[in-house]
User: What shape does this take?
Amino acid sequence: MSVLIAIVVLVVGTAALGVITSRSVPGQSVPVVTDSDIARDFTTAERTRERGFRRRVRPWGLLSVALDVVVPMVLVLTGAVAALVEHVGGPWWWQVVVTSTAVLMITRVLTLPGAVILRRVSLEHGLAAGSWSRWGRDLALGFVLAWALGTLAILGWIGAARWWPATWWVVVAVAAGVLVVMVSFLVPVVIEPLFARFTPMPPGPLRDRLLGLAARDAIVVADVLVADASRRTTALNAYVSGLGATRRIVVHDTLLDRGRDDEVAAVVAHELGHLAAHDVRTGTLLGSGGAALAVVAVYVALAWPPLRDLVHVTSAGDPASAGALVAAGAAAGFLGAPFQNAVSRRIERRADQHCLGLAADPATVARMHRSLAVTNIGSLRPPRVLHLWFGTHPTSPERIATARAWARAHDLEEPGDLVAG
Assistant: This one.
């Protein structure tokens, strides 16, 4: 009976999540961009550089994605994880720690060569910055955080399955949803400072201008912070994060160092669009619901004996299920990427429209998107399948075309060729 209830919860919950998502983030038209459109705004040298960079990094990026999914799955399906559990022995929690550590470590080691090559290519193209030791420190710290949080989550999951064999899925689903919300509050003040230093933007005309934009939107932010991104990259970026008292706008120092205040204001106007639409809150709640439904899906899947035999586990409380959970998480992330990223692109397009309305300067917005594309070596015309699967943002040429369409719709002068201008 509990499995039937779980199936109903999964079906109804998934349908409800889909409806909420479509209503919270409505679709918008995507402009058609041709090669001639791209040639208007990017020089031959810039296009050649972007294609050359993508040819070198794309195979290694795709290989890393594949290994992240395939390695845990192979370890589970071949019985290597189950054999490790038997070999380790000891209390169940120790078996879980050793198993999850082994699966995560093997996966990281196998993807490390690709990460090294990606950084080397980024250095050659002037996109990466900083020393190899700093890069290694960040990589190691990221792994330790992922290992610690992942292992603790798996321990709680399997522990709940052992303590409440019939109803563990309810407990874990609720806990997963709550944890997603907690992470949204904690990341800005606990995790982000581990990788960058944040300082308040100094008083001056630019800060006043950015806070003025927020005031026009009737948005209260805790602060406008500057991140020392230049220690690691030359890429330009800004973002919003946090909820409630931890909500803030973060601008990379690389963006400020260019001295183009109009473009900085345009970037922040885009970020204010996320705050105006409550995108962080919406994303957190959708992620919370998705995490809870993922737990229910695993419970339903493990209720099927042939699947348990396939992954070499006896129950959800079996320490060997630690490997299965890692593999399931990787597979779910890969398979769910097209849907998550489709929503992400919708969110970004909505923020772009907000940016254009708030800045009321489509020429500057268009130049800003060109600057981001050139400096960050953004993909100008990615393969369609790859963009649909992995693209979190519209392409820069699409966003420039949107700025031109907005100008026409509001009877303003359309941004001209950006190469010439």
About this structure: The longest helix spans residues 321-359. DSSP finds 16 helices and four strands in the chain. The chain has one domain: 2-409.
